[in-house]
């Protein structure tokens, strides 16, 4: 076993994960030597992959598709935000060998939105989609104190169920796309429609002046949603910064230091082009 602390990202597939590059960037910037691997686990045996990793001295890991629920089951303890998100994206081994599960996706999004000086407090926020990605970010978004948060989804029941789940935290409402009312300061696309090159059916008048359109997906070219928002003249940002943000929050849990995300994000952006 080497003295260099060992971390990893688990997924299936995993070959194209950007996490090793991001964490190497943090390690270099902070002068904190760690090893960070990409690990492929069998779809039905995340636990086996994790145990092998821990026996090699692994201290913590990021967890991505399709293991976020399996990681929550495996953890001995869950943070409040992992419980709230219903998923784990960060694991760490505690002092007594216990496995702690956390979720940094929401905090990562918030870190990026703050970097962008996005409208949050007293803002009207619209979130498109009601899947796992949305569940992880509603708590942190509501904690910023928006005047209203609307969750709109193709399957209306999923949006209303999420709104009910988070009702105690602030003004939140769930609806279908056709029932979206009013205009917004921040619109976040968390549907996977962009993957299929599709756009949710959105009202033509959606944005307030100075609004920000944010897509949780990222790529070399803007998503269909961001292209649509660009045509409406608003500021558009993709989810690459959220990816770096959630990694920075995981790094903080493991190493206790806060990397500067900007240079790492810039290097990643340059590689995407
Ligand atoms: P994730 O974990 O990334 O959120 P998910 O749980 O599969 O993935 O959720 C995908 C989200 O994208 C859902 O909100 C889904 O809408 P439904 O709940 O109605 O399935 C949404 N979605 C996927 N394809 C879509 C499309 N073509 N148009 C609109 N919404 C779409």
From TrEMBL:
Belongs to the shikimate dehydrogenase family. Pfam families: SDH_C (PF18317), Shikimate_DH (PF01488), Shikimate_dh_N (PF08501). Residues 119-194 form the Quinate/shikimate 5-dehydrogenase/glutamyl-tRNA reductase domain. GO terms for molecular function: NADP binding; shikimate 3-dehydrogenase (NADP+) activity. This is Shikimate dehydrogenase (NADP(+)). One of its GO terms (cellular component) is cytosol. It is an enzyme of class 1 (oxidoreductase). Residues 239-269 form the SDH C-terminal domain. Gene3D superfamilies: Leucine Dehydrogenase, chain A, domain 1, NAD(P)-binding Rossmann-like Domain. Residues 9-91 form the Shikimate dehydrogenase substrate binding N-terminal domain. The keyword Oxidoreductase applies. PANTHER family: BIFUNCTIONAL 3-DEHYDROQUINATE DEHYDRATASE_SHIKIMATE DEHYDROGENASE, CHLOROPLASTIC (PTHR21089:SF1), SHIKIMATE DEHYDROGENASE (PTHR21089). NADP(+) binds at residues 80, 129-133, 153-158, 216, 239. Pathway: Metabolic intermediate biosynthesis; chorismate biosynthesis; chorismate from D-erythrose 4-phosphate and phosphoenolpyruvate: step 4/7. Keywords: Amino-acid biosynthesis, Aromatic amino acid biosynthesis, NADP, Oxidoreductase. It catalyses: shikimate + NADP(+) = 3-dehydroshikimate + NADPH + H(+).
């Amino acid at each position: 076993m080497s003295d260099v602390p060992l971390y990893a990202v688990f997924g299936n597939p995993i070959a194209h994960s950007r996490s090793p590059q991001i964490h190497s960037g943090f390690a270099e910037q902070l002068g904190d030597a760690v090893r960070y691997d990409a690990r492929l686990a069998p779809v039905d045996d995340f636990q086996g992959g994790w145990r092998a990793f821990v026996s090699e001295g692994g201290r913590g890991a990021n967890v991505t598709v399709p293991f976020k629920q399996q990681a929550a089951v495996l953890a001995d303890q869950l943070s409040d935000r992992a419980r709230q998100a219903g998923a784990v994206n960060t694991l760490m081994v505690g002092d007594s060998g216990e496995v702690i599960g956390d979720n940094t996706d929401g905090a990562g999004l918030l870190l990026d939105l703050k970097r962008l000086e996005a409208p949050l407090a007293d803002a009207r926020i619209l979130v498109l989609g009601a899947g796992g990605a949305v569940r992880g970010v509603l708590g942190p978004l509501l904690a910023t104190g928006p005047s209203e948060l609307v969750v709109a989804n193709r399957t209306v029941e999923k949006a209303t169920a999420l709104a009910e789940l988070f009702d105690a935290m602030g003004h939140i409402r769930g609806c279908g796309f056709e029932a979206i009312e009013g205009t917004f300061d921040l619109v976040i696309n968390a549907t996977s429609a962009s993957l299929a090159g599709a756009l949710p059916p959105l009202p033509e008048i959606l944005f307030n002046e100075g609004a920000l359109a944010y897509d949780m997906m990222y790529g070399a070219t803007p998503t269909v949603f961001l292209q649509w928002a660009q045509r409406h003249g608003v500021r558009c940002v993709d989810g690459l910064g959220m990816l770096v943000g959630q990694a920075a929050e995981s790094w903080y849990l493991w190493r206790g230091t806060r990397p500067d995300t900007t240079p790492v994000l810039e290097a990643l952006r340059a590689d995407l082009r």
